[in-house]
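User: tokens in, sequence out, please.
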């Protein structure tokens, strides 16, 4: 998305590195968005078949993915957060990892990423990067399948275990202001 942007009632599913990437954006409004991680992940992981490209501000994946296995699933929403970039307002998001691929050779071997073990499939699902990133308001954020609901600069600031709801893990309001 170039800045400014508007995304209402959209769904992005099964892409490799991420579903929504807000690079070089300013004043973006997103309403009623939905994303789902690729079913084949994390085996092979998100960097296959397309390696992250730093020029496109693609997210960096590390060996800490998926409980230290190095197998990463794509991000549901990323905001690379360059200096001077600001303004994300999201009203209602559903970001999930529905299935987890367990074997690269046997395509039908997978596990559901829903209750009671829904936090076991993916380490993080929404990433905000850059110390200059501010003025972010997310309301009604629902996730499934990730142990961390929101990461800032690689560290979890909202854990699924602290935000358990009936089916998705839910955060009513998240504000990051300057």
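Assistant: Sequence out:
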């Amino acid at each position: 998305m170039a800045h400014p942007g508007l995304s209402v009632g959209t769904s992005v599913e099964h892409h490799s590195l991420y579903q929504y990437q807000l690079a070089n954006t300013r004043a973006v409004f997103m309403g009623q968005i939905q994303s789902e991680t690729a079913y084949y992940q994390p085996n092979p992981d998100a960097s296959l078949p397309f390696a992250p490209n730093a020029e496109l501000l693609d997210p960096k994946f590390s060996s800490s993915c998926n409980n230290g296995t190095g197998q990463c699933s794509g991000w549901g929403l990323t905001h690379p957060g360059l200096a001077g970039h600001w303004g994300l307002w999201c009203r209602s998001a559903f970001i999930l990892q529905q299935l987890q691929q367990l074997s690269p050779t046997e395509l039908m071997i997978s596990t559901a990423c829903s209750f009671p073990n829904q936090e076991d499939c993916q380490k993080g699902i929404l990433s905000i990067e850059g110390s200059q990133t501010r003025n972010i308001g997310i309301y009604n954020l629902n996730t499934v399948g990730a142990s961390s609901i929101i990461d800032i600069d690689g560290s979890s600031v909202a854990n699924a275990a602290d935000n358990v709801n009936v089916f998705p893990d839910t955060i009513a309001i998240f504000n990051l202001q300057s």
